[in-house]
Design goal:
The complex is a heterodimer of chains A (229) and B (300). By secondary structure, chain A is an alpha/beta fold. Chain A has seven helices and ten strands. Chain A has a domain at 90-156. With 300 residues, chain B is an alpha+beta fold. Chain B is built from eleven helices and four strands; from the N terminus they run ααβααβααβαβαααα. Classes of the chains: A alpha/beta (229), B alpha+beta (300). The complex binds adenosine-5'-triphosphate and magnesium ion. The site of magnesium ion has 3 residues of chain A, from helix 1. Chain B: InterPro entries: ABC3_permease_C, FtsX, FtsX_actino, FtsX_ECD. Chain B: Belongs to the ABC-4 integral membrane protein family. FtsX subfamily.
Chain lengths: 229, 300
Amino acid sequence: MIRLEHVSKVYKTSTRPALDDVSVEMEKGEFVFLIGPSGSGKSTFLRLLLREEVPTRGRVYVSNFDVAKMSRRRVPRLRQSIGCVFQDFRLLPTKTVAENVAFALEVIGKPRNTIVKVVPEVLQLVGLDGKEDRFPTELSGGEQQRVAIARAFVNRPLVLIADEPTGNLDPDTSQDIMLLLERINRTGTTVIMATHDHGIVDSMRRRVVELSFGKVVRDDARGVYGVGR
Amino acid sequence: MRTSFVFSEVVTGLRRNVTMTIAMILTTAISLALLGGGLLVVRMVDKMQANYAGKLEVSVLLTNDVSANDKDCTQQPCAGLRSALEQTSGVETVVFQNRDEGFERFKRIFEAQPELLKLARPEAIPATFRVKLEDPDRTDVIKQAFEGKPGVKGVDDQSKFLERFFEGLNGLRDVVLILALIQAFAALLLISNTIQVSAFTRRVEVGIMRLVGATRWYTQLPFLIEAVVAGIIGAVCAVGLLVLGKAFFIDRITRNLTESGIIPPVGYLDILIVSPWLFLTAIVIAATTGYVTLRLYVRL
Ligand SMILES: Nc1ncnc2c1ncn2[C@@H]1O[C@H](COP(=O)(O)OP(=O)(O)OP(=O)(O)O)[C@@H](O)[C@H]1O
Ligand SMILES: [Mg+2]
């Protein structure tokens, strides 16, 4: 499903590699936590999957895309099969909840009748039915993140990438978001989540890949955040 | 391609920076109106050249003495000059026009200017041979052969006068086109700038579009269409300016010349024929400027 082979990434403006000879494989339907201290390369890892960055060395495969080598022209296809959620939600303030979700389908050319059908479905899935006409400013942080998840999931991606999705939320709300991500994972979607949140990682008991200075230093099938440290 | 989506993006885009949009449209309009003016001059010159082609004559003006005394060109030196002209190679026809006929013709041409007619006397009009040549450019032959001969007052070459007139018009055309070019450059910079501002104000939106896998077309088309729509509105304004210019300006200052048939009038039909070029220019310039701007200055 997702495979990195000896991937290194050195940003032009820095001397230390952000990722250093990383090789990992993730199966379809897995739920993977990506942990590590700040600056260890988690976001870089995720950006390589999206082809927001290209690796300096090594190869990246997502589904049947050879991500590092593919032509720019095919990048939209790759991104259409990956959903993304971020710490800062990234909603459009001028659009309502339903419009924000529909936007993701409109801009990839989905027909109107598909959009009016699937948007209410996904809003129900994330528990936002009844709030479709609100604007992002009229929602709590947790609700805004649900909109973002709905937008990421509405096109039924193969992979959902979440970069610290609970970073701005209180523990209870974070817990709700994790339940939602779990539910999405149960539909067969691979979920990769970068996080600093000990509690969440410890309570979920899922695969944990730990990065440190750009290297994979731990890969536990049912891990916790910080064993023996 | 969801047209309704692209359309609503364009409308919000143009409304978002109204002042820039207006500046862009006005500059484009003035530039295109100047271009249109230049094209109208070109059309006028073409029409005049077509009008005069084949009609151009060399006039051999006769002296006062001949004009006054030899009404039918039966005496010397008039009769001799006529046969000499007819025998010159390259001459198609020779028509003699005596003083009275010349005066009639003068009155017809200038009937719109009674003030001028009041001042004119038949005595000022010489009898004339109107010589038509097979090749209208070979007027020098006549001039060299007949200028200074007894009975000849002078050789008047219409083509030389017209040439000077066309030179004037072509100069006018060049000035107008250079102004159009300068203005077009300003329009180009404004279009480029507007797109950059527009792309900056929409960077969050475009970021999301890219992230969810929108193609380049989808992210860039709204900007391009924005520029092209502004260009088209500019072209509409330019045509409007030309129509107003014709009705209130050109018609007034050229009325005398057009009524006497010296120059052809600028018609609404001429503007109609010129305007597709203005639209085409507007679209091509807006689209290429937009495209290049997006490629070079805006990383979408
Ligand atoms: N665009 C960039 N240009 C240059 N250096 C970068 C860039 N992005 C990240 N880096 C560097 O790469 C390293 C890894 O950054 P990355 O964002 O992947 O870390 P992270 O694990 O996501 O950190 P955090 O937990 O704080 O989000 C850091 O040293 C960072 O300074
Ligand atoms: Mg990060």
